[in-house]
Write a structure and sequence with these properties.
Order of helices and strands: HHHHHHHHHHHHHHHHH
Helix content: over 70%
Number of domains: 2
Oligomer: single chain
Mean pLDDT: 88
Number of strands: 0
């Protein structure tokens, strides 16, 4: 079982780590254009796209769970139907984003104050990259489908290839053809479509050529199946809104306490992000393998998977807690050379050190809940956790201490709620 878990987790972790590299490459290239405005434009443009695409992350998660269950039953035709439905939704949403590109951009800048130069550069970046929506959302569907088919290597290969193409194309366009911000955006756009075409080629080579003839479009477009797809993904969408509400409030509340607190919190949140990249790999294993066993009605293997995932989670959280406690200051000094910010962050280091132990259960359960398409239960736990977050802040308004206590309570509440709700999944499997 451990080998099976690592077969999914390790490539998924590598894929997760490459995700921020697309934005990092753009930032690095613009950083050599000699204009602070260009860097600011990348940051604002990235913010607009991250918020838009984050909301549609359900395309990956919902597709993964449904595909894994179909794979568990041995019904590959049904799995293919899931992919086609997901792509129909993904490309439908992408067309809507392209059609509404101007209102989305205007709405984003109603909440952001920027100089005219930064706004113009951001507009250039945005108007080119918005045409990548079909590629980005289509890749969400393919990534979820590959994962559901127990194939984590394909998304990893695609992600690595995208980064290489992005770096090469953007560098050539910016420095070779003097395209400036337009070159950065075009290079990223080319990388996005290269990733989509790579996904199609891999799918065709490994799955499509033997099964495309098995597709039944009447079944793909079945209203009942689409209703189920939207119900599952609607729950994930609402869960994502709760997550955005918590993280946005955390950032805004830190900002309200001054630049020093905002900077310290931003650095300490990197401890959470680093840990999440690792734990998400094991969550993906829960999605893929858990969904497979759920579809196969194999409760014994499903329970064993849960125990092994928790063993990995406890070991990794203990290791990260120790690493943060011992080397936390060193990591902070790598992130910034501002001694005042480091000193401020050190005051709240114990909270960052507590993150792994408090949060690992939520990551693992998220994967298992997605794999079993128990999205209503996952949404219920997120709602309870979000209420806990805002309740702590309301009852204990003690500046940044209250903010960190609320965040840890939010993470812990998710895990505790899911521990209780997990028993409903086990009970359901016994009755199936």
């Amino acid at each position: 079982m451990n080998k099976q878990i690592l077969h999914i987790a390790i490539p998924s972790i590598i894929s997760n780590i490459t995700v921020p590299l697309l934005a990092l490459a753009d930032t690095t290239i613009t950083g050599h254009l000699g204009s602070a405005a260009c860097i600011g434009a990348i940051a604002l443009g990235g913010m607009v796209f991250n918020m838009a695409y984050w909301l549609f992350g359900f395309l990956r998660m919902g597709t993964s769970g449904l595909t894994a269950q179909a794979h568990g039953t041995g019904n590959r035709t049904q799995a293919l139907h899931v992919l086609y439905r997901s792509l129909i939704v993904a490309w439908g949403v992408a067309l809507l984003l392209i059609a509404a590109q101007r209102p989305i951009f205007d709405a984003a800048f109603n909440f952001v104050t920027a100089t005219h130069e930064v706004e113009q550069l951001t507009a250039t970046y945005y108007r080119i990259l918005i045409w990548g929506a079909p590629a980005v959302l289509g890749l969400y569907s393919f990534a979820g489908w590959f994962l559901g088919m127990q194939n984590a290597k394909a998304p990893m290969v695609i992600a690595i290839g995208q980064n290489i193409i992005n770096i090469v194309a953007s560098t050539v366009l910016v420095f070779g053809f003097a395209q400036g911000m337009a070159g950065v955006a075009t290079g990223t756009l080319l990388a996005q479509y290269a990733g989509l075409f790579a996904a199609i080629i891999i799918w065709q080579k490994q799955y499509g050529k033997h099964q495309a003839s098995a597709i039944k479009w009447r079944e793909v477009c079945n209203v009942t199946q689409f209703k189920r797809f939207f119900a599952i993904n609607g729950d994930i969408f609402l869960r994502t809104l709760c997550l955005i509400a918590v993280t946005t409030y955390f950032t805004a509340a830190g900002s309200a306490q001054g630049n020093m607190v905002l900077a310290a919190n931003t650095l300490l949140m990197q401890f959470f992000i680093i840990f999440s990249y690792i734990m998400d790999g094991f969550a993906y294993a829960g999605e893929s393998i858990g969904g497979h066993y759920y579809g196969a009605r194999n409760l014994r293997s499903f329970s064993l998977l849960t125990r092994r995932l928790f063993a990995w989670g406890m070991a990794l959280s203990a290791a990260f807690t120790l690493a943060y406690a011992v080397a936390g200051r060193c990591l902070l000094e790598l992130l910034t050379n501002n001694a005042q910010v480091v000193a401020q962050a050190i005051n709240f280091m114990p909270y960052a050190c507590a993150i792994p132990m408090v949060s690992f259960a939520a990551f693992i359960y998220d994967g298992l809940f997605i794999g079993t398409t128990s999205t209503k239960l996952m949404l219920a736990s997120m709602l309870a956790a979000s209420m806990c977050f805002f309740a702590v802040i309301t009852l204990c308004p003690d500046g940044n201490v209250s903010l960190w206590c609320a965040f840890l309570s939010y993470l812990g509440c998710r895990g505790l709620m899911q521990t209780w709700l997990y028993q409903r999944i086990v009970k359901k499997m016994r009755l199936l």
